[in-house]
Amino acid sequence: NAGVTQTPKFQVLKTGQSMTLQCAQDMNHEYMSWYRQDPGMGLRLIHYSVGAGITDQGEVPNGYNVSRSTTEDFPLRLLSAAPSQTSVYFCASSDQTAGTDTQYFGPGTRLTVL
Amino acid sequence: AQRVTQPEKLLSVFKGAPVELKCNYSYSGSPELFWYVQYSRQRLQLLLRHISRESIKGFTADLNKGETSFHLKKPFAQEEDSAMYYCALSPPGAGSYQLTFGKGTKLSVIP
Question: Which of A12, A24, A30, A105 has its CA 20 to 30 A from that of B7?
Answer without folding.
Answer: A105
